Protein 1
Amino acid sequence: MHAGLCGWVMIFSFDLLINAVVSGILIGGFYAAVTSGVSLSFGILDIVNIAHPAFIILGSYVAYIVNTTLGIDPILTAIVMTPAFFVLGAGIYQIYYVSFEKRGQESLRGLAFFFGLLFITEVSLVLYFGVDYRYVEAPYIGPTWHLGVVGMPLRMLVPCVVSLLLIAGLQLVLTRTFIGRAIMAVAQDQLALRLMAIDPIRIKRIAFGISIATASLAGAFLIIIQPVEPSVGREYIGRVFAICVLGGMGSLPGAVIAAMLIGIVESLTSTFYGPSWAPAVSFGFLLLTLAVRPAGLLGR
Amino acid sequence: MRTPLFLVICLAVAAAVFAGAVAVGNDYVFFAGYVILQYVVLSTAWNILGGYCGYVNFGSAAFFALGAYSTVAIYKLIGLNDLPHIVPIPVLMLAGGVVSGVVGFGMGYLTLRLRGAFFAIATLALAVVLQTLIVNWDFVGGSRGAYILRPEEVPLIGSYIKYLFLVMLLLAVAALVIARLIERSRLGYGFATIRDDELAAEASGVPTLKLKLIATTISGALMGMAGAPFPYYIGYLQPSSTFGLDYAVNSIAMPLIGGTTSWVGPLIGTILLGSLQQIATVTISSAVNLLLVGVILVAFVIVAPNGIIGLVHTYWQRKPDDFVGRRRVETDAPGSVP
Amino acid sequence: MTGNMTGNMLLEVDNLGKRFGGFVALENIALSVPAGERLGLIGPNGSGKSTLVNCICGTLQNEQGSVRFDGHPVDGLAAHQRTRMGLARSFQLPRPFVSLNLLDNIRIPLLYAVASRGTRSSASDVEARCTDLLREVGLDNKARQLPRDLTQVEMRKLELARAMAAEPKLLIADESMAGLTHSEVEEILALLVRLNEKGVTIILIEHIMRAVMSFSRRLVVLVSGRKIADGPPDEVMRNPEVEKAYLG
């Protein structure tokens, strides 16, 4: 009887374990999409845009508005809104460049600038929408696919798959297209670009625009996965930088691995120790990474 | 002006402020004034690391909350949960200061070898980690919060809030004196070189890591000391409000708006921004008030990077030497620095 | 203070190597500099001169090899510790402290590097010393101005003066003369010679060949991260490999 009880406990835990891991992988895919923007702005351009999560939340709310008024699928909305977010990002970079980068003051004042943006965005959303949780409706929110003992909610599976597609697309752009390679180059050798008659500032503007454009999509994914309210962005600040640093700064494949790792650990922590511990996981990871191996797993 | 004289002047001003507040006859002055004084300490403390050394700390709330929660912990330890205080506030402040100072040192040790940007992000991380720890620590009340009963009266001074106000007033004086002392000392020169060019500072013999650790520890300790009496002020301590974003944003906005190069900046910024917020909270709403802070911060950082001190300089076109005794002013990057 | 252990070598670099990712910046650099030497370090752009200086001074950590200064191994020591031991350098691209005026810029090494060696100086002594140093490089009339008000050339002079302020045993001057007029070059050379006569060992990194040839008693040539020549200037300049590096 004792052995039987142990066996039962083991199976029960195993079920929970495998589901937690799968859940972690699924959310990790999403985390990677969220981080991709920061990999661009921080990893490659060296701009500490801590307001990135705010743009994601903005994307969530845009998807929410369109979804509740017109009934359009959030991911579709996000794709349509990408150019608008791109323009927003380009505009913000221009202000950042003129006010800070050009003057060499990006460390203190640049950080304060983005912090201010984060703050303004969050408080504006609170003023306009209030602190109630908002959610969207879509045919894949609700059903769950079952593969044996593993349950994969579609509301997590769909964003995960689209996220990985987004990252694959970004990686292709960065490595195969001219603009993409110019972006990679601007991080390392601005002089070389100038010699090729390419304006590095324009390249950086485009890169930052792309970074914010990803936030539009990430926002749609977020509100599909979970209900959103304005302060949700804050927990992502640490996650996003943790994944970016852990994944080796500008490396997108690195970000994917790091994101899955953090997703799995968070999921396991949440399942076995309770959800109130989850926020500390990624931040704890970040502190550890910074202390021990700042170059990340696939370090540069 | 030598420091002892400065201290005497500050104490005189403080005495005048206290007398003036008492003369108003309404305890509300003390409640509002306490918050402003608290921010004088927080913004001055922030500026020691942020303005003088150039290392941005987004986690002011964490150090503040550590001070507050160490007070709660001491209470729970002594077991006098709802009884009036037996451990006097200054001692609690010392405890809060030590706890925050140690954590500041520890965090600095882990992250200060890296670039300023990483340190800034690490401070964000610290705030969240600490909040999570506190929320899960039932000993200090966890997410349910902790009640601290405020005694009614204090002999000689009057209502308890007057006592709290007085204590915070003295802490504010101490913070300003410390900041000014640092500014004018060898340490202040060292901090400035760290802010300007850490590599060149090292090459010139400045032990940058040691100095950064000193700055982080002092800054953290002062913030913890500001937080220690907070449970008494607020009566009911909750993690969500104690770790609130308004502490982080205000302790950054106030020095940046006032000017980061000198002890005067955080003071000016706090008085201006603090009063503005008190008015806005009362007349409009607290959410709009926060929005205002964010907008003003962004506007100042773009348009007036040297804060109000900088604006005063430009307007009067005085040489940097003549002002506040320090030959220092924030400048645009020089032509040749890569 | 214990003196040199091995002969009279102030600086010993042994089998130094430094890579940046896949790029080999320095390979197998060996260098011995006796006290009192006037060493010229030359080489085409990108040959690794500044990287070598950075490794010697601790701004960069070398992966391979070792550095000994004044008889003590300095591998792993932070830059400020090496400066305190008596090793000072100027940066090729000037790095002034932008929010401090010139006087205060010079004051920093005096307050930190020199003071840590135990000698107590009064504030007025320090101030006088700062003014003297500025005068030696011809910048005393701008003592209370900020670095942003200086020309490129003046900033290089400030760099040199700041390195001198650390009262070093070994001073590495990295391209301090770029952009100077003929007479200014002579002035700086005279300054360096005066320093050397007071006992300061000097490593001069320069592209102005005339200056290097007249100043150096010994010349070291670096090409693509390797040392290809080391000896008296005339001999070195007649070395066919050196000719090839500069003309080939």
Protein 2
Amino acid sequence: MSQTVLRLEDVCLRYPAGEGGVLRGLSFDVQAGEIVALLGPSGSGKTTTLRAIAGFETISTGRVSVRGTVVANAATHTAPDRRGLGFVFQEQALFPHLDVAKNVAFGLRGRDRGEREEIVRNELAHVGLGGYEHRWPQELSGGERQRVALARALAPRPGVLLMDEPFSSLDAGLRESIRRRLRERLKSSGTTVLLVTHDQEEALTFADRVAVLHEGRVAQIGAAREMYSRPGSAFVAQFLGATNLFDGEASGHEASTVLGAVRLDREASGWVRLALRPEHIALTRPEEDGEVGIVLTREFKGHDVTLRVRWANSVWIIQADYRCEFQEGEPVCLVPREPAVVLATEKR
Amino acid sequence: MVVGVFAPLGYLAYFALTSETGSFAFVVRAQTLTAVWNTFALAAAVLFFGTLIAAPYAFLTTRARLRGERLFVLLGALPLAIPGYVLAMVWLGIGGDYGLSQRVLGVGLWRANGFWGATLALTVYTFPYLFLNLRAALTRLDPSLAEVARSHGLRGWALWRAAILPQVRAAYLAGALLVVLHVLADFGVTSLMRFETLSFAIYRQAQGAFDRTYAAWLSLVLVGLTAVLLFVDMRFLRGRLKPVSGATIRFAPRVALGRWTAPAYLYLVGVIGFSLLVPVAALFLWASQPPEFDSVISWKHAMRNSLVLGVGAAVCAPALVLPILRVSVRREGLWARLLERIPYLGYAIPPLPLALAFVWLTLSVVPDLYQTLPLLLAALLLRFLAEAVGPIRSLLMRLPERVEEASYALGFGWLATLRRVTAPLLRRGVLIAMAFVFLAVVKELPLTLILAPNGFDTLATNVWTHMEEAHFALAAPHALAILAVAGIFVTILQFGEQEQK
């Protein structure tokens, strides 16, 4: 039986007139020991959500609870320092008047000096900055600062950690290794994590569950794999990676579409909007009397190939493996490999 | 704070408008017109001669090959530390039949007074504003513009007019505004030199003739003139001529002076001698004379009072400025910008009308406050809050809100955050701000003179009252004490600047 650590219920946040970035009835939970990623385009309210949970923003209506205690609603606002949440800032926000070691040790209380030094050394080693103790924030690169900020937030071993784009300044190779090690550590210590990111791949690999935000609301929340393969709306489908959207007339578990008869992931009837991921479509040689598509472009990416195919007056993106032999200008036929996902009708 | 400025001024206007004698003919009479004319003439003369001194000085210290440039820059800024009324005192005492030069050198010089005396003292006092502004502009000069002009065949004066003067114009006008504001506000120099500008006329009406209505009207005229000046500056001059190409960090090559080297050094040394060495030497000569009676007690007393005022204001100012700036630096929009302007209100209003307005307002509304230390301190704070804005603002801009939030997120409350993060980061700015306010208060004359409690003599008021009776030997120690305080202040600032690097 897991315990709910963070709970947001119908949270609204309005700024004084003229400013954007508002929350409009946001609800979701984070369970103990779970890693949840908030994903969304810029301006969707990711950072604002995180800051509202931490107490840096005051919510207008709704309710935020931490470990079962209400910390914010229309009437109350618990100060950030009394919420017991760790926070990693996108801007790093290192203390410019303290060196790296003192920055990391800032939140350590009630420990003797030796113990503090030990923790600082371990934390810095963990983010690959061993020996940086006496450097100054001004001397560090953006990536190094970000790792110090991580170490500072982790040093007091917070039970709940809020992270705002914590890996954005790291270069690709380092990002992956830091992310992997951090995930291992957070999982073994049972830390509850809420992470803001705009990188869908990061959200899918790092988090247990992903919440996609759209205009201040949760568009969909669910397990990473589930979200990717069964998005609920066109917005979520497109946001979690390239996708092909098309219409079909459904009846039961099948629909008739421009691809012919297509299997569906659930029962439906009437006109529906459908989605198929690029790797869920196979390319075959066209039959004599069937419909024919034309390969428009072919991008070789090493381990796989991305093709754009004109089929029935629209352009389809197909992800094929390295053995794909279709060249630009050649005729092809599209065949679904997986059931198409039935999307909820978008509210206009 | 807004109330603090507008309540007295509002009362001033109310007082002037409701008095029975307040008619058009009453205000527009020969005396008023003379005072206005004198004020304008003095401002024009000070600006003219100040430019004459400052422009070559700025050119030589930025664009010419020169030894000891840094020293000349520092010495060129130092006259700012000598209050105008001390300079007035010095030049009053040097010339004339019984003047210092007659006694020491045996040479009788022209005795400075009236229009030319006021021009002399105020020019020496204010030319550093022009010099520093011009210097800043000339250092930042974008050489590519001159190169473009040259490639179009311009040379000599035409080159200057096309490519260099436009770049310097904005800075010059900013400096000129400061100079004119100082002349409008000046009371110490014009009163000692007996030259009837608006400020001095206001004082004479208020204290001597006790014609309060007329004094109130004159005050309104002076405040009005200042407001017009500030409006013109804001409306037409600000934001013009900002550099377009931002990338150039190249410096224009310096001019070799050749046979002009000796005259150039002579000129620089001459300016410094005139503005610094002569005044200081004269003060020492007077101070070394045996006093006519024991003045050590009064000196100690005045020193203590000046320190009380200075320290009091210096401690209060950052506490008042910080909350305002915290909001204005971190928020955007019209209100934040207006908020930031508040400290400048008291700074822009000439001190004499402000002082009189305070007197009349307290006398008629809260007589118990009249001539009390808290009222004086409040008036001084209102006037010099702006001095504290610059240094604190620049440090606050480098302390993003996120840094404080990082401390909250690690579980520290606002008090612990203030102690561990905010205070250490702002300490230097606050210290510099305190030094600015302290120096301004110690130098200040009209507000202290009019609002101080009975018997509360400060160094500044003592210089002035002794000078009213031409007691040079008595005034000199007080003036020297002010200069010593100013010297310490400059040292602190230099120290702070070096530490920042």
Protein 3
Amino acid sequence: MTGSLPTLPQPPLLPRLVGIGSWALFLALFLVSAHFTSFSLQTLVQGIPDFLAFFGKMWPLDWRALPEIWQPLLETLQIAYLGTLFGGILAIPFIFLGSRNTTANPVVMWGVRGFLTLVRSVPDLLYAAICVGILSFGPFPGVVAIIIFTTSVLAKLGSETVEAIDPGPLEALQAVGAGRIQQIVYGVVPQIAATMASYVLYIFEINVRASTVLGFVGAGGIGQLLRTYLSFFDYRGTAVLILIVFGVVVLIDAVSSYARSKLI
Amino acid sequence: MISFDGVEVTYPNGYQALKGINLDIPKGQFVVIVGLSGAGKSTLIRTINNLVVPSKGEVRVGGRSITLARGAELRKMRAGIGMIFQTYNLVKRTTVLRNVLSGRLGSANPLASLLGIFSTSDLLMAHACLQRVGIPEKAYVRADALSGGQQQRVGIARALAQQPQVMLADEPVASLDPPTANAVMGDLKRITREDGITTLVNLHFIDMARDYADRIIGMRAGEVVFDGTPDQASDQVFTEIYGRSIDKAKDLLGQVIG
């Protein structure tokens, strides 16, 4: 390493400018967002004592809350289960009509895709709030909200899976003289079954978590109890409730993850 | 049995795969079609079951135009035409038996078939077809657990389950090692002969074409450039079909076998 270094060939200017511009935009968005949301690290750090005090109020745990937790907890799981079940069944026609290789015709395919994109653009908690408005309080509007969410997400994931299958068996079934639905049942379903079962389990996990907060908008389940405790400042009962929910969700995730790992 | 009447195929990208094909194939003939990749062999046999729709002309099978057939009539005609593929096109994640039974879909009760219910005679026939291709013990094995040669035998069994009048084979042994390829070709020839099935096979290998064919059709650039018996298909003829020296072609073959 002696002598003067040869001049390095310079990379082209435009990509460098794009790079610098991207970082500048990133920084600008950060500053603007932080300003308008009053985000401040200082406040966060100063809040640590309050944070700890909040947890202090949860102690000692008030186990008297336990008996009244089970029923709404069970209701939460029932909402998630029914929502996943019916959502999954409802997704089936959308999956095949929305896939390029199994749809009836392109117009139907784009119609289905557009409709599903529209449905997915609304968050599930908002659906729950709307359903409560229409169907009044209770777990039923929660189930409906979860069904809508499950259908729209599974239809999307399903269509992507269907479009990725090996087209060979479909061609063979066409050659055999099989009808459209026979082609789907014999050529497509065996190819997507394991993946779809895995997706359904994963969405059930998501739905269990989603169902725990549905109660905040009056759509049944454990969230309703959580909101009651919080509004009475019953932090010791809240802590028990959160612990139980945490335990149940972790358990379901673990079982479901294990089942999914066995599927594929 | 099969007749081509001025058949032309132009793909949507403008590529002309077939240019005015006129052919007559009598019942029971075992025809081997040879030619370079892209010569139009696959397109040609796919017009026979209308997987490729001719842009001009028509193909008749058993006197009826399959080119003009639609809906239920097309499915019924396809049910009488078996097809086997280079990549077998089996549903790998299901059993061999279910793959063979799918050959019955064109004629089985549609509703029952969707529930996976087949008649006893269909089930007996499926097992019998596996017997004929020599793998009766594999009925309940998953298709992806079989070797290539066995998978192609399942493909033949699925086509046989259709009880076809016509058998189409698109490069059926191109993915197999030479001894297996010969065994599978031998089975295909024996079975189609026994049942009097009119058979069209696309092949890459020249010696194999000579060994098995009743009639060889040579294709180049979408046209039939040779049509005759294996005896007439001299090295000179193959040179013309392939558009280059046969020794070159033999070199390629040598690589495959060696």
